[in-house]
Design goal:
alpha+beta, five-stranded antiparallel beta sheet, Phosphatase 2c, domain 1, flat, 759 residues, Beta-Lactamase, six-stranded antiparallel beta sheet
Length: 759
Amino acid sequence: MKIGFKLTLTFFIISIATMLIAGIISYRDAKETLQQETFKKLTAIKEIKASQVTEYFNQIQNQLLAFAESPSTIEAMKGFKTGFNTLNSEFSNRDAYDIHRHNRIDDFLDTFFIPQLNDHSINIINKKGLRPLNINALLLQEFYIANNHFSSNNRINIDSLPQKFYYNTIHKKHHHVIRSFMKRFGYYDIFFIDNETANIVYTVYKEIDFASSLNAGAYRNTNLAKAFNTVLQNDTLNKAVLVDFEEYIPSYNHPASFMACPIKEKGKIIGVLAFQMPIDNINNLMTNNNKWKEIGLGLSGETYLVGEDYTLRNQSRFLIEDSVGYYKLLKEIGVGSLKINKIKNSKNTVGLQEVKTQGTKEALSGKTDNLIFDDYRGISVLSSFMPLNLFGMKWIILSEIDEEEAFEPALELRNKIIKASIIIVLFILILSFFISKKVTKPIKELEFDAYELAKGNLDVEITNDRTDEIGSLASSFQQMQQAIKNLIHGLEDKVAERTQEVVKQKDIIEHKQNEIIDSLNYASKIQSTLLANETFLNKYLPNHFILFKPKDIVSGDFYFATKTQTHFYIAVCDSTGHGVPGAMMSILNMAFLNEAINQHKLIKPNEIFNHVRSRLIKNLSKYGGQDGMDGILFSIEISSNKICYAAANNAPIIIRNGEVIELPCDKMPVGIGLKEDTFNLFDVEIKNGDMLIAYTDGFADQFGGPKGKKLMYKPLKQQLLNFSVFNVNEQKQKLNLYFENWRGNNDQVDDVCILGIKF
């Protein structure tokens, strides 16, 4: 490399380093500032929305209590109770009315209500249990539901019926007032409930729960019944009762929440008033009427509520904006198809979308904080969260925005710094070129002489007319010229001698490398002979597969099988380490397993593991070793096929009827650990068609995919479930293909061993 180029390169490197350091510091400071400002904004949005939610429910309580105390409401409650209870006596002389009534109610259920209900549910529901339980209820549903064109919009506008009876008189007087109140304040429905009989004696909309009982039938376990009973149990409290959102059959299985309070006359309860709150009001409040950008949440931010059951209490922004993409994302992160179909059918995430993140866990434990973690979509977000206590309900509120969007300005700043740096560096390169040219001109003159010397022209005349550092360099070249002449002859002999020595050392190194590789291959053959062979396994497990993929030539993972006169044993284990150390441990562990079963005649898997652990501790701990293994050991009784097992850290699973069932295990290794209790013996109940699977951690710990992340256990279990419909050979092939596609160009990080048994 020429000096001129070196000088230019030096200037270039210095400028690049300067720009790089300045850019990194600027980017880091900008990112930190953005993070702080984003958390401040998210916290402010969260607190505003929390205040709005609290105020919303307080407002509802105030409206509910005021409405319950109204003389008109008290009068209506008394009238509806009386009208409901005397209805049968007013129509007792109508011949054949029961037959007509039954047909009309059945027509309503069969032709209108149940088809619409089934459109909103993945579970097919019939009319059994939905019919009213007494004649008064049947009469009211006949008059107000079955005779009014099966339309709730039609029913709500009917103040009076042609028939003359006391209930109709009361309804004509009060219905338009209650209806106007409901529409003005945006409630889904208003209920008057008899405190003595638990009958719903009045509703505005006259849905299928109208005139039904909350103590018996299809509605006794609803959250409306819960609100009603809680009011009666706490009748001394001068406040409302709020129950959380649940699916409510009369509202076509849409989530419904109720707030209720007593209706009192002279201090005595005469009934219960309940408001059914629509989810739309909370959705509009939390989504800002689907205008997230207007409150500073950008393209990916949202504020949402989560209940104590770790599910949403308002719609997800991502379902609203892109339902197709949302369903696809749920599938990608391992959400079950049944749950996805239920969200699709209802077009709703309330009570369905699970949000079990770091933020929700900490908030439900009472913490308020700002953190960065993966949200319910598996995407990294900046999140501000806090708990909410609404009338005894433990909710939490979170304001979040995607990390990528939050830090986008920092990325833009970085790009601008890069562009500016390129311009500055180009300028420095041009300037350094002219400086280096001037500095290197006298050096180039000496360079020519050095070049001639390098070609072997030892007689070249080296000019030396300078007194500076370059003149001193020329004098050195003259001295070197003479020295070369003196040493040139002896140098050839030494070069030949050294060349011969290098060739010899190269041959020695290649020989050692071949010996090591041969040793590893031989070790692999030894390990392979210790593993259970397929012929032996097929005799006792005719329908099985084993996916065994060592990270190196030899493996720390192993599968072991043996039998006694009464039992067949098979184990899938992960020894400490991989490669040669792991292989040595696997051989030792297999030896101890064989010793326990075939020499000491131990039968129970937990006793076998206890023996292996004691042998490992005895043989390794005295040398300071803490090695051992994790794994699963199955015992199959040959005469009955009864299965039991012991498990150290790794839990086996059963795939049954499209569901993954995780079996228990002991959270400790077979070896020295924080916990050294006696291993438990677990029984396995196997049914026809079950798939019993045991695996080590190598598959789940593999890095890969589009983001280079660990696969993790949940996606692995999902794939095992998906492949379980195929035969065992196809399962093995598909698992191996999935692993290789996931790994891509990444190195395999650990040994892999999976055992599957089809029953």
